[in-house]
Write a structure and sequence with these properties.
2 copies of one chain form a homodimer. Chain A is an alpha+beta fold. The first copy, chain A, folds into 2 domains: 69 residues, Orthogonal Bundle (Arc Repressor Mutant, subunit A), CATH 1.10.10; 49 residues, Dna Ligase, domain 1 (2-Layer Sandwich). Helix content of chain A is 34%, strand content 19%. A 4-stranded mixed sheet of chain A has the order 4-3-6-5. In chain A, strand 3 and strand 4 form a beta hairpin. In chain A, helix 1 packs across helix 2, helix 2 packs across helix 4 and helix 3 packs across helix 4. Chain A is globular, with a radius of gyration of 19 Å. The model of chain A has no long low-confidence stretch (mean pLDDT 88). Chain A binds a DNA duplex through helix 4.
Chain lengths: 145, 145
DNA sequence: AAACTAGATGAGAACTATTCTCAACTAGAA
DNA sequence: TTCTAGTTGAGAATAGTTCTCATCTAGTTT
C-alpha cells in the first residue's frame, strides 16, 4: 500500500497501522504523517519537533519507540541501516558490502559485473562515488535459523 | 597505492601517511595496520582493543582522531558514511539516495535505469534488498563553493 | 455501554558513542 | 640540536539512544 497520496487521510494511516499489528494511536499517526509529508529524511529529533506542533505532549522517547515500531512493521525505512556505530574499511578497491541484518557482520563482495558506474552528474548534484549495500542474511545466521 | 600486500611493512605505511600530510606516529601506523589486516570492518572500539596489544598506552580519543585523520586523507573509508544519526524515509518505492557530503542533505533519486537488480544469492549470503547511495556535492553547496 | 487487558505513553534516569579541552609530548623541518 | 606545528592522553562534556516504570488507552470482550 502506498500511503503517500493520502497522507492527510488519518483513517488510511490508522488502517495501515492496524494491519501491521500496531495500535493506531494519535502519536503513531502523527509520526507517520510527519514522515510521509517530509522530503527531508528527518531524524528522530526533527520528527519530534515537527510532531509537537499538533501533539504537544508527545515525548522524545515515544518518537524513538514509534520509529522503531514503524520500521519493524515495514511502514517506514531507515535511510541508514548501518547507523549503529561506525565501521571502517581499508580496502580501497571498488567493492560492495553484504550486510547481515541479523548479526551485523559486513562482508566485502567484489563483483565488477554488479558494480554500477559512478554517474557523472545527476541534475545539479555532482557525484563523487557510489556505494552499494546488499542487505540480507549471512550464511552463518541462516544456518542457525 | 594499495597498501594491503605490505601491511606488515611499517615504512610503507609511514610514507603513505607523510604523503597525505600526516605525521607518521606509532599510533597512526598501528591503527592503519589494524585496519589493513582486518576483514571485520571494525569500529573505533574494536580498533582500540586491537591496537592496545602493541601500543598499550594509546587512548580511545586518539583512535577516534586517527580514524578521522586517515579518513580525511583517503587512506581509509567509512563503511557507513551516513552514520551521524538516523534518518528515515517513508517513500517505499525503489529509489537511490543522493547524499551531499558537505551539508548532509539527502535527496531521493528515482532512476530505474540506474537501479541494480536485487541479486538473489551471493555465495551463502541471502540478499533481501539493495541500497545505492551516491555521495557527492549538492547543487546548493556547489553554488557556495 | 462498561469492563478488561495487552500494548503504548511520558518523564526522567541511565547508558553509550563521540567530541572537546588542554597540558605535555614528538616527528620532521630548519 | 633546536624549534614548532601537529599529535597525544586523560578525563570531562555533550549528544544520541535506550531503559524503567507508573499511568493510560485502543481495541476486544462481555
Amino acid at each position: 500500500m502506498d500511503l503517500r497520496p493520502h497522507a492527510h487521510d488519518g483513517e488510511r494511516l490508522a488502517t495501515a497501522c492496524r494491519e501491521a499489528g500496531l495500535k493506531a494511536t494519535p502519536q503513531r499517526l502523527a509520526v507517520l504523517k510527519a514522515l510521509l509529508t517530509s522530503r527531508e529524511h528527518p531524524g528522530p529529533e526533527a520528527v519530534f519537533r515537527q510532531v509537537r506542533g499538533e501533539l504537544s505532549s508527545i515525548s522524545l522517547a515515544t518518537v524513538y519507540k514509534t520509529l522503531d515500531a514503524l520500521e519493524a512493521a515495514g511502514l517506514v525505512e531507515r535511510v541508514t541501516p548501518l547507523s549503529d556505530g561506525r565501521r571502517y574499511d581499508a580496502n580501497r578497491t571498488p567493492h560492495h558490502h553484504l550486510v547481515c541484518t541479523t548479526c551485523g557482520r559486513i562482508e566485502d563482495h567484489e563483483d565488477p559485473a554488479l558494480a554500477p558506474p559512478v554517474p557523472p552528474q545527476l541534475g545539479g548534484f555532482q557525484a563523487r562515488s557510489v556505494r552499494v549495500e546488499v542487505l540480507g542474511v549471512c550464511a552463518a545466521c541462516r544456518r542457525e535459523a
